[in-house]
Amino acid sequence: MLERGRARVHRMVPFTIRLVDRLQEDSVLQPMGLQRDPGSKDTGIA
Predict the structure, then answer these.
(1) Which residues are CB-neighbours of 11 under 8 A, at least 6 positions away?
(2) In terms of DSSP H, where are the helices of 1-46?
């Protein structure tokens, strides 16, 4: 996708690409949930 120009590098760490040939109004989006886990020593996100 990078070689064909359909995506570009968004971040190097963690390696993330961003699609450039799609628009949000043309895409089907899935619902997403986000939860926080306040552990005894560290806080996590799932």
Answers:
(1) none
(2) none
